[in-house]
Amino acid sequence: MLTLFRWLSGLSLGLLHTLGSALGWVTYALSPTYRRRMAANAAQAGLSAAQWKPAIASAGRMVMELPYLWMRPPGEPIRPRMRFENDALLDAALARGKGVLLLTPHMGCFEVAAQAIAERFGATSPITVLYRPARKPWLRELVKTSRERPQLFAAPASLAGVRQMIRALRKGQMVGLLPDQVPPDGMGVWAPFFGREAYTMTLATRLVQQTGAELLLTWAERLPRGAGYVQRFLPFPETLPADAAESAAAINRAMESLIRQNPGQYLWGYHRYKAPRQQPAADGIEQDKE
Asked: Residue 102 — left, alpha, or beta (φ > 0 → left; ψ -120 to 50 → alpha)?
């Protein structure tokens, strides 16, 4: 598999996206469960088929661009393929020195977002991103090493990872989260997402409350024909409530507003409404004083 990844990483981004489009439609055709989930999730959001069906090919493009993004030589920058929009918003937030928490949904190319931000802002502030270690040993090592680049650090979804993010924010640095990812049992609350209750992480709220960090929204739009990406930054649209359930609902509303900007690049096949994994989850954020 690693050999295949290395070979694919040498192809052009345009070709990878073309192959990815085909992969997305083949997966959609061959998996009734995936097909039903995509349609049901998009219908829950009130979208027409014309609005959400481009996401079928987009999901395949997301998979096929991973070899390039993960196995690109460390010295090869991603920024020539990235255009920033409203990045002065992040510049200003970093200048205030309180740390910045960046939230992005499973939309566009969220893998490229952290790499591009690290290249653009790393001289001022590194970025730490939360990730869930893969189950397969070979993939676990590949994901970890590929996501750690100059000024880009990966924090595992564990208590140690939470402490790592707290330290980064207290130093005035950046942290990136995907808040529409279903957290383990005990690490979230049920909150509306497109009108249906979804188990939603409370980590973002607790990080802000613990560190006083500023909150911004961002997402990386994938441009057609391998032309690259556009990274957009937006202010969080409301004051984040102190109550966990109300805060989770506010974050879900913010994610909805981003997704509606380009529903054809959201992962509608993600099992957003599933029950959380039943496992003990250490909290400890309120007690951490490092």
From this structure: beta
